Amino acid sequence: MGSKMKLVGILAVGAVAGALTTMQLQAVARNALAPLPLEEVQQLAAVFDRVKAEYVEPVDEKKLISDAIAGMVAGLDPHSQYFDKKSFKDFRENTGGKFVGIGIEMAMEEGLVKVVSPIEGSPAFRVGLKPGDLITRIDDSPVKGLTVDQAVKKMRGEPNTKVVLTVFRKAESRSFPVTIIREEIRMQSVRAKMVEPGYGWIRVSQFQERTVEDFVRKAEELYKQDPKLKGLVLDLRNDPGGLLDGAVALSAAFLPDDVVVVTTNGQLPESRATFRASPEYYVRRGAADPLRKLPAAMKSVPLVVLVNEGSASASEIVAGALQDHKRATIMGAQTFGKGSVQTIRPLPSDTALKITTARYYTPAGKSIQAKGIVPDIWLDETAEGNVYAALRMREADLERHLTGADEKKDAEREKAREEARKKLEEQQAKTKEPPKPLPEFGTPEDFPLQQALNQLRGLPVLASKTAPAEQRAEAPAEKK
Protein backbone atom coordinates (compact mmCIF):
# COMPACT_ATOMS: atom_id res chain seq x y z
CA MET A 1 0.00 0.00 0.00
CA GLY A 2 3.04 2.25 0.09
CA SER A 3 2.44 3.10 -3.55
CA LYS A 4 -0.85 4.82 -2.81
CA MET A 5 -0.24 8.46 -3.61
CA LYS A 6 -2.40 11.54 -3.55
CA LEU A 7 -3.86 13.62 -6.30
CA VAL A 8 -2.25 16.87 -7.38
CA GLY A 9 -3.94 17.93 -4.16
CA ILE A 10 -2.56 21.04 -2.57
CA LEU A 11 0.61 21.66 -4.54
CA ALA A 12 1.73 25.25 -4.52
CA VAL A 13 -1.77 26.53 -4.17
CA GLY A 14 -4.18 23.65 -3.85
CA ALA A 15 -6.65 21.65 -5.88
CA VAL A 16 -10.26 21.26 -6.91
CA ALA A 17 -10.63 18.55 -4.30
CA GLY A 18 -8.57 15.93 -2.60
CA ALA A 19 -7.63 12.64 -4.01
CA LEU A 20 -7.99 8.97 -4.15
CA THR A 21 -5.01 8.17 -6.36
CA THR A 22 -2.84 5.18 -7.13
CA MET A 23 0.76 5.53 -8.28
CA GLN A 24 1.69 2.86 -10.82
CA LEU A 25 5.47 2.80 -11.15
CA GLN A 26 5.62 0.89 -14.41
CA ALA A 27 4.78 2.40 -17.76
CA VAL A 28 2.08 0.78 -19.87
CA ALA A 29 3.60 -1.81 -22.19
CA ARG A 30 3.74 -0.69 -25.79
CA ASN A 31 1.97 -3.78 -27.11
CA ALA A 32 -0.93 -3.10 -24.75
CA LEU A 33 -1.85 0.10 -26.56
CA ALA A 34 -5.06 0.07 -28.56
CA PRO A 35 -4.87 0.56 -32.34
CA LEU A 36 -4.95 4.24 -33.27
CA PRO A 37 -7.76 5.61 -35.49
CA LEU A 38 -5.76 6.39 -38.63
CA GLU A 39 -8.01 9.08 -40.11
CA GLU A 40 -8.09 11.13 -36.88
CA VAL A 41 -4.34 10.79 -36.37
CA GLN A 42 -3.79 12.07 -39.91
CA GLN A 43 -6.06 15.02 -39.13
CA LEU A 44 -4.05 15.80 -36.00
CA ALA A 45 -0.84 15.66 -38.04
CA ALA A 46 -2.35 17.99 -40.65
CA VAL A 47 -3.31 20.57 -38.02
CA PHE A 48 0.14 20.30 -36.43
CA ASP A 49 1.76 20.89 -39.82
CA ARG A 50 -0.43 23.94 -40.58
CA VAL A 51 0.18 25.54 -37.20
CA LYS A 52 3.92 24.96 -37.43
CA ALA A 53 4.13 26.36 -40.96
CA GLU A 54 1.61 29.21 -40.90
CA TYR A 55 1.24 30.57 -37.39
CA VAL A 56 2.17 34.25 -37.09
CA GLU A 57 5.25 33.42 -35.01
CA PRO A 58 7.46 30.33 -34.81
CA VAL A 59 6.08 27.75 -32.39
CA ASP A 60 7.81 25.17 -30.23
CA GLU A 61 7.02 21.73 -31.66
CA LYS A 62 7.32 19.99 -28.30
CA LYS A 63 5.00 22.50 -26.69
CA LEU A 64 2.42 21.97 -29.42
CA ILE A 65 2.41 18.22 -28.80
CA SER A 66 2.34 18.70 -25.03
CA ASP A 67 -0.60 21.11 -25.28
CA ALA A 68 -2.45 18.70 -27.58
CA ILE A 69 -2.03 15.87 -25.07
CA ALA A 70 -3.05 18.11 -22.17
CA GLY A 71 -6.18 19.20 -24.03
CA MET A 72 -7.13 15.61 -24.83
CA VAL A 73 -6.86 14.58 -21.18
CA ALA A 74 -8.52 17.73 -19.81
CA GLY A 75 -11.59 16.93 -21.92
CA LEU A 76 -12.22 13.73 -19.94
CA ASP A 77 -13.16 14.93 -16.45
CA PRO A 78 -12.02 17.54 -13.87
CA HIS A 79 -9.50 15.22 -12.21
CA SER A 80 -7.60 13.70 -15.14
CA GLN A 81 -4.43 15.58 -16.09
CA TYR A 82 -1.29 15.33 -18.18
CA PHE A 83 1.94 16.14 -16.31
CA ASP A 84 4.83 17.54 -18.30
CA LYS A 85 8.33 17.04 -16.92
CA LYS A 86 8.19 20.03 -14.57
CA SER A 87 4.70 19.42 -13.20
CA PHE A 88 5.41 15.71 -12.66
CA LYS A 89 8.53 16.62 -10.69
CA ASP A 90 6.44 19.02 -8.60
CA PHE A 91 3.84 16.34 -8.03
CA ARG A 92 6.38 13.82 -6.71
CA GLU A 93 8.11 16.39 -4.53
CA ASN A 94 4.89 17.57 -2.93
CA THR A 95 3.31 14.26 -1.94
CA GLY A 96 5.16 14.58 1.36
CA GLY A 97 2.99 17.47 2.57
CA LYS A 98 5.38 20.38 2.06
CA PHE A 99 5.83 22.79 -0.82
CA VAL A 100 6.73 26.38 -1.64
CA GLY A 101 3.79 28.57 -2.45
CA ILE A 102 1.07 30.80 -1.04
CA GLY A 103 -1.06 28.09 0.58
CA ILE A 104 -4.57 27.84 -0.81
CA GLU A 105 -6.84 25.03 -1.89
CA MET A 106 -8.20 26.13 -5.25
CA ALA A 107 -10.61 25.44 -8.06
CA MET A 108 -11.33 27.15 -11.38
CA GLU A 109 -14.62 29.03 -11.75
CA GLU A 110 -15.62 30.94 -14.88
CA GLY A 111 -11.99 30.91 -15.97
CA LEU A 112 -10.71 32.40 -12.69
CA VAL A 113 -8.89 30.87 -9.73
CA LYS A 114 -11.35 30.38 -6.90
CA VAL A 115 -10.10 30.09 -3.33
CA VAL A 116 -11.74 26.98 -1.90
CA SER A 117 -9.95 27.44 1.40
CA PRO A 118 -6.73 29.07 2.61
CA ILE A 119 -4.47 26.56 4.35
CA GLU A 120 -4.36 27.25 8.06
CA GLY A 121 -1.25 29.24 9.01
CA SER A 122 -0.15 29.81 5.39
CA PRO A 123 0.79 33.20 3.84
CA ALA A 124 -2.61 33.30 2.11
CA PHE A 125 -4.32 32.62 5.44
CA ARG A 126 -2.36 35.38 7.20
CA VAL A 127 -3.16 38.05 4.62
CA GLY A 128 -6.87 37.29 4.90
CA LEU A 129 -7.83 35.44 1.72
CA LYS A 130 -11.26 33.85 2.19
CA PRO A 131 -13.20 30.94 0.70
CA GLY A 132 -14.95 32.11 -2.44
CA ASP A 133 -12.41 34.83 -3.32
CA LEU A 134 -11.68 34.94 -7.05
CA ILE A 135 -8.12 35.65 -8.22
CA THR A 136 -8.34 37.63 -11.46
CA ARG A 137 -4.66 38.52 -11.99
CA ILE A 138 -1.38 36.95 -10.94
CA ASP A 139 1.27 39.67 -11.02
CA ASP A 140 0.68 41.27 -14.43
CA SER A 141 -1.03 38.27 -16.05
CA PRO A 142 -4.83 37.92 -16.34
CA VAL A 143 -6.02 34.55 -15.06
CA LYS A 144 -8.65 34.23 -17.80
CA GLY A 145 -7.29 31.87 -20.41
CA LEU A 146 -4.89 30.06 -18.09
CA THR A 147 -5.19 26.37 -17.35
CA VAL A 148 -5.13 25.14 -13.76
CA ASP A 149 -1.54 24.04 -14.23
CA GLN A 150 -0.51 27.41 -15.64
CA ALA A 151 -2.17 29.26 -12.78
CA VAL A 152 -0.44 26.97 -10.26
CA LYS A 153 2.94 27.58 -11.89
CA LYS A 154 2.52 31.35 -11.73
CA MET A 155 1.69 31.24 -8.03
CA ARG A 156 4.59 28.94 -7.25
CA GLY A 157 8.14 30.17 -6.90
CA GLU A 158 11.17 30.31 -4.68
CA PRO A 159 10.94 30.94 -0.93
CA ASN A 160 10.87 34.61 0.12
CA THR A 161 9.79 35.84 -3.31
CA LYS A 162 6.61 37.86 -3.69
CA VAL A 163 3.57 37.48 -5.88
CA VAL A 164 0.87 40.13 -6.29
CA LEU A 165 -2.67 38.81 -6.66
CA THR A 166 -5.70 40.81 -7.72
CA VAL A 167 -8.66 39.45 -5.77
CA PHE A 168 -12.35 39.93 -6.44
CA ARG A 169 -14.50 39.36 -3.34
CA LYS A 170 -18.10 38.77 -4.38
CA ALA A 171 -19.51 39.38 -0.92
CA GLU A 172 -18.04 42.89 -0.93
CA SER A 173 -18.39 43.56 -4.68
CA ARG A 174 -14.84 44.88 -4.90
CA SER A 175 -11.40 44.04 -6.24
CA PHE A 176 -8.16 44.66 -4.38
CA PRO A 177 -4.49 43.72 -4.67
CA VAL A 178 -2.77 41.43 -2.18
CA THR A 179 1.01 40.96 -1.95
CA ILE A 180 2.02 37.55 -0.64
CA ILE A 181 5.52 36.33 0.20
CA ARG A 182 5.94 32.71 -0.86
CA GLU A 183 7.29 30.30 1.70
CA GLU A 184 7.59 26.59 2.31
CA ILE A 185 4.24 25.34 3.48
CA ARG A 186 4.45 22.49 5.95
CA MET A 187 1.03 21.06 6.32
CA GLN A 188 0.05 20.22 9.87
CA SER A 189 -2.66 17.80 8.90
CA VAL A 190 -3.73 16.73 12.41
CA ARG A 191 -4.68 18.87 15.40
CA ALA A 192 -6.26 17.73 18.64
CA LYS A 193 -7.26 18.95 22.06
CA MET A 194 -9.59 18.28 24.96
CA VAL A 195 -12.48 20.63 24.28
CA GLU A 196 -13.94 19.95 27.73
CA PRO A 197 -13.40 17.34 30.43
CA GLY A 198 -14.04 13.89 29.01
CA TYR A 199 -14.45 14.97 25.40
CA GLY A 200 -11.74 15.22 22.75
CA TRP A 201 -11.53 16.79 19.29
CA ILE A 202 -9.25 15.59 16.50
CA ARG A 203 -9.13 17.54 13.25
CA VAL A 204 -7.67 15.99 10.10
CA SER A 205 -7.25 18.70 7.46
CA GLN A 206 -5.73 16.47 4.75
CA PHE A 207 -4.49 12.90 4.29
CA GLN A 208 -0.71 13.09 3.82
CA GLU A 209 2.20 10.69 4.26
CA ARG A 210 2.52 11.35 7.99
CA THR A 211 -1.16 11.88 8.78
CA VAL A 212 -1.73 8.44 10.31
CA GLU A 213 1.37 8.68 12.53
CA ASP A 214 0.36 12.19 13.61
CA PHE A 215 -3.19 11.01 14.29
CA VAL A 216 -1.93 8.19 16.52
CA ARG A 217 0.32 10.59 18.43
CA LYS A 218 -2.52 13.06 19.00
CA ALA A 219 -4.90 10.29 20.08
CA GLU A 220 -2.32 9.02 22.56
CA GLU A 221 -1.98 12.52 23.99
CA LEU A 222 -5.74 12.78 24.48
CA TYR A 223 -5.90 9.45 26.28
CA LYS A 224 -2.98 10.42 28.51
CA GLN A 225 -4.99 13.45 29.57
CA ASP A 226 -8.09 11.34 30.19
CA PRO A 227 -7.81 7.52 29.96
CA LYS A 228 -11.60 7.30 30.33
CA LEU A 229 -12.54 9.52 27.41
CA LYS A 230 -16.35 9.75 27.15
CA GLY A 231 -16.55 10.86 23.55
CA LEU A 232 -14.56 11.99 20.53
CA VAL A 233 -15.27 14.34 17.63
CA LEU A 234 -13.41 13.53 14.40
CA ASP A 235 -13.46 16.76 12.37
CA LEU A 236 -13.15 16.26 8.60
CA ARG A 237 -14.64 19.58 7.51
CA ASN A 238 -12.89 21.10 4.49
CA ASP A 239 -10.61 18.03 4.28
CA PRO A 240 -10.01 17.69 0.52
CA GLY A 241 -8.66 14.14 0.78
CA GLY A 242 -5.26 12.68 0.00
CA LEU A 243 -3.68 9.27 0.44
CA LEU A 244 -5.91 6.24 0.14
CA ASP A 245 -3.90 4.19 2.62
CA GLY A 246 -4.34 7.01 5.14
CA ALA A 247 -8.12 6.89 4.73
CA VAL A 248 -8.13 3.11 5.17
CA ALA A 249 -5.90 3.35 8.26
CA LEU A 250 -7.96 6.12 9.88
CA SER A 251 -11.11 4.08 9.32
CA ALA A 252 -9.40 0.99 10.75
CA ALA A 253 -8.52 2.93 13.91
CA PHE A 254 -12.21 2.92 14.84
CA LEU A 255 -13.61 -0.18 13.09
CA PRO A 256 -13.51 -3.90 13.92
CA ASP A 257 -10.66 -5.84 12.33
CA ASP A 258 -10.99 -6.88 8.68
CA VAL A 259 -14.33 -5.22 7.89
CA VAL A 260 -14.66 -3.61 4.46
CA VAL A 261 -13.65 0.06 4.34
CA VAL A 262 -14.05 0.82 0.63
CA THR A 263 -14.26 -0.95 -2.71
CA THR A 264 -13.27 0.27 -6.16
CA ASN A 265 -14.47 -0.76 -9.60
CA GLY A 266 -13.23 0.14 -13.06
CA GLN A 267 -12.37 -1.21 -16.49
CA LEU A 268 -8.98 -2.68 -15.52
CA PRO A 269 -8.73 -5.77 -13.28
CA GLU A 270 -6.43 -3.85 -10.92
CA SER A 271 -9.17 -1.22 -10.52
CA ARG A 272 -11.52 -3.77 -8.98
CA ALA A 273 -10.40 -4.06 -5.37
CA THR A 274 -11.60 -4.29 -1.79
CA PHE A 275 -9.78 -2.52 1.05
CA ARG A 276 -10.31 -3.78 4.58
CA ALA A 277 -9.54 -2.59 8.10
CA SER A 278 -6.40 -4.72 8.29
CA PRO A 279 -2.70 -3.73 8.34
CA GLU A 280 -1.99 -5.34 4.97
CA TYR A 281 -4.19 -2.69 3.34
CA TYR A 282 -2.53 0.39 4.82
CA VAL A 283 0.94 -0.49 6.19
CA ARG A 284 3.70 0.70 3.89
CA ARG A 285 6.37 -1.72 2.80
CA GLY A 286 8.95 -2.34 5.50
CA ALA A 287 7.07 -0.30 8.12
CA ALA A 288 5.32 -1.37 11.32
CA ASP A 289 1.58 -0.99 11.85
CA PRO A 290 1.15 2.68 12.92
CA LEU A 291 -2.11 1.84 14.70
CA ARG A 292 -0.45 -0.62 17.10
CA LYS A 293 0.09 2.19 19.64
CA LEU A 294 -3.55 3.26 19.72
CA PRO A 295 -5.47 2.72 22.95
CA ALA A 296 -7.90 -0.19 22.63
CA ALA A 297 -10.71 2.16 23.72
CA MET A 298 -10.57 3.87 20.30
CA LYS A 299 -12.56 0.95 18.91
CA SER A 300 -15.54 1.73 21.14
CA VAL A 301 -15.38 5.38 22.21
CA PRO A 302 -18.61 7.22 21.25
CA LEU A 303 -17.78 9.02 18.02
CA VAL A 304 -19.17 11.92 15.98
CA VAL A 305 -17.72 12.80 12.56
CA LEU A 306 -18.13 16.39 11.36
CA VAL A 307 -18.26 16.94 7.58
CA ASN A 308 -19.27 19.70 5.19
CA GLU A 309 -19.29 20.50 1.48
CA GLY A 310 -15.49 20.74 1.51
CA SER A 311 -15.02 17.16 2.77
CA ALA A 312 -13.90 15.22 -0.29
CA SER A 313 -12.56 11.90 -1.52
CA ALA A 314 -10.44 10.26 1.21
CA SER A 315 -12.39 12.04 3.95
CA GLU A 316 -15.60 10.80 2.33
CA ILE A 317 -14.22 7.24 2.43
CA VAL A 318 -13.74 7.54 6.19
CA ALA A 319 -17.17 9.11 6.78
CA GLY A 320 -18.88 6.55 4.54
CA ALA A 321 -17.17 3.57 6.20
CA LEU A 322 -17.95 4.75 9.72
CA GLN A 323 -21.53 5.53 8.73
CA ASP A 324 -22.21 2.21 6.98
CA HIS A 325 -20.78 0.22 9.89
CA LYS A 326 -22.84 2.37 12.31
CA ARG A 327 -19.66 3.21 14.18
CA ALA A 328 -20.21 6.97 14.25
CA THR A 329 -22.88 9.63 13.87
CA ILE A 330 -22.13 11.75 10.82
CA MET A 331 -23.08 15.39 11.39
CA GLY A 332 -22.86 18.50 9.24
CA ALA A 333 -23.62 18.94 5.55
CA GLN A 334 -23.62 16.79 2.44
CA THR A 335 -20.03 16.21 1.36
CA PHE A 336 -18.26 17.13 -1.89
CA GLY A 337 -19.06 13.94 -3.80
CA LYS A 338 -15.74 12.95 -5.36
CA GLY A 339 -16.17 9.23 -5.81
CA SER A 340 -13.49 8.51 -8.40
CA VAL A 341 -9.98 7.07 -8.38
CA GLN A 342 -7.08 8.54 -10.33
CA THR A 343 -4.04 6.49 -11.34
CA ILE A 344 -0.64 7.97 -12.14
CA ARG A 345 0.97 6.37 -15.18
CA PRO A 346 4.60 7.44 -15.75
CA LEU A 347 5.35 8.08 -19.43
CA PRO A 348 8.62 8.53 -21.37
CA SER A 349 10.74 11.67 -20.84
CA ASP A 350 9.78 12.01 -17.15
CA THR A 351 6.17 12.90 -17.93
CA ALA A 352 3.05 11.21 -16.61
CA LEU A 353 -0.67 10.81 -17.02
CA LYS A 354 -3.12 11.12 -14.16
CA ILE A 355 -6.25 9.38 -15.36
CA THR A 356 -9.51 8.41 -13.73
CA THR A 357 -9.57 4.61 -13.60
CA ALA A 358 -12.30 3.65 -11.14
CA ARG A 359 -15.19 4.70 -8.97
CA TYR A 360 -15.19 3.93 -5.28
CA TYR A 361 -18.02 2.61 -3.15
CA THR A 362 -18.82 2.61 0.55
CA PRO A 363 -19.04 -0.73 2.41
CA ALA A 364 -22.80 -0.83 1.72
CA GLY A 365 -22.09 -0.56 -2.02
CA LYS A 366 -23.14 3.08 -2.42
CA SER A 367 -21.40 5.25 -4.98
CA ILE A 368 -21.09 8.80 -3.72
CA GLN A 369 -19.96 10.22 -7.07
CA ALA A 370 -21.59 13.64 -7.57
CA LYS A 371 -23.72 13.08 -4.46
CA GLY A 372 -21.49 12.78 -1.42
CA ILE A 373 -22.13 11.41 2.04
CA VAL A 374 -25.49 12.48 3.42
CA PRO A 375 -25.11 13.21 7.15
CA ASP A 376 -27.18 11.48 9.80
CA ILE A 377 -27.86 14.86 11.36
CA TRP A 378 -27.78 18.05 9.27
CA LEU A 379 -26.19 21.10 10.88
CA ASP A 380 -25.96 24.74 9.87
CA GLU A 381 -22.68 26.66 10.01
CA THR A 382 -23.97 28.99 12.74
CA ALA A 383 -26.89 29.11 15.17
CA GLU A 384 -28.51 31.67 12.83
CA GLY A 385 -28.16 29.45 9.75
CA ASN A 386 -25.70 29.07 6.89
CA VAL A 387 -23.48 31.84 5.59
CA TYR A 388 -21.28 30.31 2.90
CA ALA A 389 -22.52 26.71 2.57
CA ALA A 390 -24.65 27.20 -0.53
CA LEU A 391 -21.81 29.03 -2.29
CA ARG A 392 -19.30 26.20 -1.91
CA MET A 393 -18.57 24.14 -5.02
CA ARG A 394 -19.21 20.42 -5.07
CA GLU A 395 -18.31 17.70 -7.56
CA ALA A 396 -21.68 18.02 -9.29
CA ASP A 397 -20.88 21.68 -10.02
CA LEU A 398 -17.70 20.87 -11.95
CA GLU A 399 -17.78 20.75 -15.73
CA ARG A 400 -17.38 17.27 -17.27
CA HIS A 401 -17.71 15.52 -13.91
CA LEU A 402 -18.53 11.82 -13.98
CA THR A 403 -22.24 11.42 -13.54
CA GLY A 404 -23.40 9.78 -10.35
CA ALA A 405 -26.02 7.08 -9.97
CA ASP A 406 -29.47 8.53 -10.67
CA GLU A 407 -27.96 12.01 -10.89
CA LYS A 408 -30.27 14.76 -12.03
CA LYS A 409 -29.95 18.51 -12.27
CA ASP A 410 -30.14 19.90 -8.74
CA ALA A 411 -32.32 22.92 -9.34
CA GLU A 412 -32.92 23.36 -5.63
CA ARG A 413 -29.20 23.65 -4.92
CA GLU A 414 -28.78 26.20 -7.71
CA LYS A 415 -31.69 28.18 -6.29
CA ALA A 416 -30.18 28.03 -2.79
CA ARG A 417 -26.84 29.26 -4.12
CA GLU A 418 -28.47 32.21 -5.86
CA GLU A 419 -30.52 33.08 -2.76
CA ALA A 420 -27.43 32.90 -0.54
CA ARG A 421 -25.49 35.16 -2.89
CA LYS A 422 -28.36 37.66 -3.00
CA LYS A 423 -28.64 37.62 0.80
CA LEU A 424 -24.96 38.40 1.20
CA GLU A 425 -25.19 41.24 -1.32
CA GLU A 426 -28.20 42.72 0.49
CA GLN A 427 -26.41 42.47 3.82
CA GLN A 428 -23.39 44.20 2.35
CA ALA A 429 -25.55 47.00 0.93
CA LYS A 430 -27.25 47.60 4.30
CA THR A 431 -24.33 47.37 6.68
CA LYS A 432 -21.45 48.39 4.39
CA GLU A 433 -19.54 45.66 6.21
CA PRO A 434 -18.44 42.27 4.89
CA PRO A 435 -20.14 39.19 6.37
CA LYS A 436 -18.68 38.14 9.68
CA PRO A 437 -16.19 35.33 9.09
CA LEU A 438 -17.04 31.92 10.48
CA PRO A 439 -15.38 31.05 13.81
CA GLU A 440 -12.22 29.00 13.70
CA PHE A 441 -12.76 25.26 13.88
CA GLY A 442 -12.27 23.88 17.37
CA THR A 443 -13.17 27.05 19.28
CA PRO A 444 -16.07 27.51 21.72
CA GLU A 445 -17.77 29.63 19.03
CA ASP A 446 -17.68 26.70 16.56
CA PHE A 447 -21.42 25.94 16.34
CA PRO A 448 -21.23 22.52 14.61
CA LEU A 449 -18.62 21.37 17.13
CA GLN A 450 -20.87 22.38 20.01
CA GLN A 451 -23.74 20.40 18.47
CA ALA A 452 -21.45 17.39 18.08
CA LEU A 453 -20.61 17.64 21.79
CA ASN A 454 -24.31 17.85 22.61
CA GLN A 455 -24.85 14.67 20.62
CA LEU A 456 -22.12 12.88 22.59
CA ARG A 457 -23.51 14.13 25.90
CA GLY A 458 -27.07 13.11 25.04
CA LEU A 459 -28.29 16.70 24.98
CA PRO A 460 -30.65 18.24 22.38
CA VAL A 461 -29.04 19.03 19.03
CA LEU A 462 -30.03 22.11 17.02
CA ALA A 463 -30.44 20.46 13.63
CA SER A 464 -30.32 22.42 10.37
CA LYS A 465 -32.98 25.00 9.62
CA THR A 466 -31.95 25.27 5.99
CA ALA A 467 -31.37 21.71 4.69
CA PRO A 468 -33.80 20.76 1.87
CA ALA A 469 -36.93 19.18 3.29
CA GLU A 470 -36.51 15.81 1.59
CA GLN A 471 -32.89 15.61 2.74
CA ARG A 472 -33.86 16.42 6.30
CA ALA A 473 -36.29 13.55 6.02
CA GLU A 474 -33.46 11.16 5.08
CA ALA A 475 -31.82 11.68 8.44
CA PRO A 476 -33.34 11.91 11.91
CA ALA A 477 -33.21 15.31 13.58
CA GLU A 478 -31.65 13.76 16.62
CA LYS A 479 -29.93 10.50 17.52
CA LYS A 480 -29.09 9.39 21.06
TrEMBL record:
Biased composition (Basic and acidic residues): 402-435, 471-480
Protein name: S41 family peptidase
Keywords of this entry: Hydrolase, Protease, Serine protease
A GO BP annotation: signal transduction
Span list, region Disordered: 402-480
Lineage: Bacteria, Pseudomonadati, Pseudomonadota, Betaproteobacteria, Burkholderiales
GO MF annotations, alphabetized: endopeptidase activity; serine-type peptidase activity
Species of the source: Rubrivivax rivuli
A Gene Ontology term for the protein's cellular component: outer membrane-bounded periplasmic space
InterPro entries: ClpP/crotonase-like_dom_sf (IPR029045), CtpA/B_N (IPR055210), PDZ (IPR001478), PDZ_sf (IPR036034), Peptidase_S41A (IPR004447), Tail-specific_protease (IPR005151)
Family membership noted in the UniProt record: Belongs to the peptidase S41A family.
Domain PDZ: 88-170
Keyword Cell cycle in annotation: no
Keyword Repressor on entry: no
